[in-house]
Amino acid sequence: MKQFAALYAELDTLTASNAKLAALTSYFAATPAADAAWAVYFLAGGKPRQVVPAKVLRQAAQAAAGLPEWLFDECYDAVGDLAETISLVLPPASSTVDIPLAQWVADTLLPLRGEPPEVQHAALSRMWQQQNRLERFVGIKLITGSLRVGVSRLLVTRALAAVSGIDAKLVAQRLVGYTAQAVVAGKALPDAAAYLALIAPAGNGGVQRGGQPYPFFLAHPWQQDVAAMAAQLGSPAQWQVEWKWDGIRAQLVKRAGDVWVWSRGEDLVTERFPELQAAGATLPDGTVLDGEILVWLDGQVAPFALLQQRIGRKNLGAKVLAAAPVILLAYDILEWQGVDQRTLPQHARRALLEQVLADYHPPGIQRSPLVAGDDWAQLATLHTSSRARGVEGMMLKARDAAYGIGRTKDVGTWWKWKIDPYSIDAVLIYAQAGHGRRASLYTDYTFAVWDKPQGDATRALVPFAKAYSGLTDEEIRKVDAIVRRTTVEKFGPVRSVTPTLVFELGFEGIAASSRHKSGIAVRFPRMLRWRQDKPVAEADTLADLQMLLQPGSTAANA
Amino acid sequence: MPIQSPDNPLIIARPEGLYCPAGDFYIDPWRPVARAIITHAHSDHARVGHGHYLATQAGEQVLRHRLGDIALQTLRYGEAVSHNGVRISLHPAGHVLGSAQVRIEVAGEVWVASGDYKVEPDPTCAAFEPVRCDTFITESTFGLPIYRWQHSDALFAEINQWWRANAAQGRVSVLFCYAFGKAQRILRGVDASIGPILTHGAVAPLNDAYRASGVALPATRRVAELAARGENKAAYAGALVLAPPSAAGSTWMRRFGDYSDAFASGWMLLRGARRRRGVERGFVMSDHADWPGLLWAIEQTGAQQVYVTHGQTGVLTRWLGEHGIAAHTFHTQYGDEDEGVGQQQDEATQAAAAPMDDAADSAHRAEQGPEEGAAP
Ligand SMILES: [Zn+2]
Ligand SMILES: [Zn+2]
User: Fold this and answer.
1) What would the CATH number be for the domain defined by B12-148+287-367?
2) Mean per-residue pLDDT for A63-77?
């Protein structure tokens, strides 16, 4: 545990990838397999479900530190991170014991789950008595499933390749699904054997075992003008063009009589989609499809909000399934008859996919339609219809490209050509301090639009969105200074300000909502631009927002 | 025990600064006044423009360096003078060279104004000395239980290890720190056998003032001296460079070639602050009392009444109130942590925009602004 905490601290201060790689490599080289198994799990983004509620953590910390609640809250406000706050307020350890990571997970972390608060409370106090500040910080992050390490999965892969001498691509492939092990079955935790399997010498080919999916091939954003397309991309005939669907990217795996559905985050989501489980059962063993999970109503895609609502449901009764039925819109086939198809060119995989779907007619699986166009201008015209079709734009896939790993471009490229997001000029009315790196700077803002047109003396600002990304560090510092200068009132960590700042906000989707004061919910709002040229009185109105609502989008009340 | 006089307090807050009505003088005023007692020479406490200054003898050199030609009367620690029937004496605050707590006594009632203080030992200045009083005026810069400093041996071991590792790779170690107090404490604490120590133009004159005041510091050279001789990057390899925070990101840094940078400040305790600062290492080092230090110092004074100035005034006032001490807040213009964030960042932005050179005038610019460096 001490070594893992020290590795975390080292990675946290390093910025250069090479230095991080060196730190990871020397850690893995010196760590027993059982501990390395868990280290890979955590570094690759694996998160056991939160085992202790934040409330219990806070109460145990307050008791151990002898602080009243208000003072603990003041500390938390200043630090901006619960685990860090607790690690700082606790008194020094009474003894120092070094417990190996795997043993700590098995004996301390996992048994905490499901225990009553008083048992958890006592266990935390015991744990803290033996830990230094850094171990406490990392330990709480692991217990709350919120450890974020500044290393990419690719870097972990490269480190494992370096210590084992195995090809990094093979390691990447074996790593897929690794972080889902803790939830697949209670006993299938990443143990020493699982780690050794990751770094074992290349054996009998690259066939995936069990329900393991393939690494997803990811698209790059196309951000240039239509005019540049011919020069950069050649003729549209070299590309397979599809709509870009707004759902959940997923792989459906059928092997040995079983079906697995994996989301892009490599979460196993089979149980959330019984329709797809049934669909997969009709396919032969040794089949893996790649596609998009969508809610499909009356022969067309429903807004994402509906899918989101459905994911949130614990119980999938007949009513829920009828109200929001899902399909897999398949666009690729990665394995067929147990053979990896990823090196086939895109057009050949497409032909195979069409053949398989025609032969088996799996209910609930449809193929993603192709979009035809003689030239880019014609496609661009079609592209403008994206919003009305409920899609986010187009996908351009090189016809002769193999199926790559992640965001690689070495075997061909996928481009996502997205429509411009919706945008509106809104007024900043509340600000809240950020967390983590931005604690003690006001970085999270609430934005409002006018409820009536300019000139109406009774008009007021109605909040409709919160956003916290899209500004440069320099802009954040300036806005922070203005927030402090123009504060009207403080409510805990939130400040209301005199409205002086106008920002252009962009968002990906918009829907009517009875749960919001403005009557409108927007999706993925972010700041596109600080409109220093625009006075507050000229910010947009609720009517401007309502004009962006599509007919039919009122169904989504998320 | 003397009767406290709520209607006749010995010190009150006025727009010019903390004021003693009985003696008709101010303590660390921020506007020009006729008579001022200065606790220490940091720029938010010691300002130009007052008619008469009273300060410690130990701090005379640094105070004159910072304020130039002033009408200055000095006192040895513990020595008392009488002014308008008020007995005044100055006592070590352990903050920086010459820093003092101001003790004033009228008709048996004693008030002590702490200025800035820390309670850990610091070989570059006299150690904090608790002074019994009825009313204590305390700072609260780090007045939250999250702030607990480690022992300075452990701190200097960390700094030495960082410097040694860099030197072994032929890299320069640039340590940003406040030019007055922090820089000298580092100089005194590091293992000078690791390599040469170089200073920015803002740091060098303060080293000289410390040496002139009898504080032994290891030998240092100015970066400007080497630069003037046309030395190339190799001349800096393995050196420790002490520079003010405002030099970070400036063109002044280019001469060092491959370097590792670090920042020494109490704020470096927080991960968010370390990351915002954007240096490779953050060393947690403060010349202010941490939370246990503040509580210990307050207890040692035996004061029944406490006024809290700059920092976590609300927190400390409430905590003391809940522990049976009548506590209030004095609003001052000393470096305030909350508002300081924006102000300090403006300053950092300006410094980054302005080309820096370690000429004498830029040395002055680098020293301005609230202490604890331009810390977030
Ligand atoms: Zn000071
Ligand atoms: Zn101060």
Assistant:
1) 3.60.15.10
2) 95
